[in-house]
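Input C-alpha cells:
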C-alpha cells in the first residue's frame, strides 16, 4: 500500500503527537469502585503483550543480516544493496522496539489493583501501536518492494542470478510476515479500541484505514 506524501506526513505527525514521550502519570489518581474495568484493560493489555512478543520473521532477519556481513564488500556498489541494507536495519528496529517493555510493565501493575491507566497512557499505547504498524511495518513492506523491483533488473541482465533469486525469496518471506503481523495487530486493536474510542477517534479511523495492508502477490 502506498500513500500520498501529504497523507503519510499526517499519519506520522499524529502518531508522533501521541507516542513520542511516555506520560509521567501512568494511572488515574482515584481508584475504581468496581474492578471490572481494570480487569478488562488488563486482559486487553495481555493480548497486546502476547502479540508484541512475537518477532517478525526472526530466522529470516538473522539470515538477512548474515548476508550483509558476508557480501557487503562485493555488492556495496550495486543499486539494490543500499535499499536491502535499509530493509535489514528497519527489520531489526521493528524487532527491538521497546513498546513490549512499556506494555509489560503497565500490564503487571494494572492487573494488581483498582487503578485504571491514565488517559495519556492509553493514548500513548494506541499511538505507539500505530507507529509500530506504519513507521515500521509499512516501511519494511515498501523496502521489500523497492529491493525486488531493482533486483529484477539485475536478473534480466543475468548478473548474480542465484544470489538475486535468494534475496527476492527473503523479501517475499519478510513481506508475508508483515501481512501476518498486521492481521494479528488488527485483532488486538479491535479489543483495545473500546478504551481508546472515547479518547481519540482519529487513532481508530487511522488504524482501520492502515490495516488494509495485504501481502504482495
Amino acid at each position: 500500500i502506498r500513500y500520498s506524501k501529504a497523507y503519510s506526513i499526517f499519519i506520522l505527525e499524529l502518531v508522533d503527537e501521541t507516542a513520542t514521550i511516555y506520560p509521567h502519570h501512568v494511572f488515574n489518581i482515584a481508584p475504581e469502585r468496581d474492578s471490572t474495568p481494570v480487569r478488562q484493560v488488563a486482559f486487553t493489555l495481555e493480548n497486546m503483550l502476547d502479540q508484541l512478543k512475537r518477532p517478525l520473521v526472526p530466522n529470516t532477519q538473522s539470515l538477512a543480516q548474515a548476508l550483509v556481513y558476508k557480501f557487503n564488500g562485493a555488492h556495496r556498489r550495486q543499486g539494490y544493496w543500499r535499499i536491502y541494507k535499509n530493509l535489514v536495519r528497519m527489520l531489526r528496529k521493528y524487532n527491538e522496539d521497546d513498546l513490549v517493555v512499556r506494555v509489560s510493565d503497565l500490564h503487571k501493575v494494572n492487573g494488581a489493583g483498582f487503578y485504571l491507566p491514565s488517559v495519556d497512557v492509553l493514548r500513548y499505547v494506541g499511538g505507539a501501536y500505530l507507529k509500530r504498524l506504519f513507521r515500521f511495518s509499512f516501511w519494511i513492506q515498501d523496502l521489500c518492494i523497492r529491493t525486488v523491483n531493482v533486483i529484477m533488473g539485475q536478473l534480466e541482465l543475468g548478473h548474480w542470478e542465484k544470489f538475486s533469486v535468494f534475496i527476492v525469496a527473503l523479501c517475499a518471506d519478510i513481506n508475508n510476515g508483515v501481512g501476518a503481523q498486521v492481521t494479528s495487530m488488527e485483532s488486538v486493536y479491535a479489543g483495545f479500541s473500546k478504551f481508546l474510542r472515547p479518547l481519540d477517534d482519529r487513532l481508530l479511523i487511522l488504524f482501520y484505514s492502515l490495516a488494509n495492508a495485504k501481502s504482495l502477490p
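The two ends are 12 Å apart (CA to CA). Confidence is low (pLDDT under 50) at residues 213-217.
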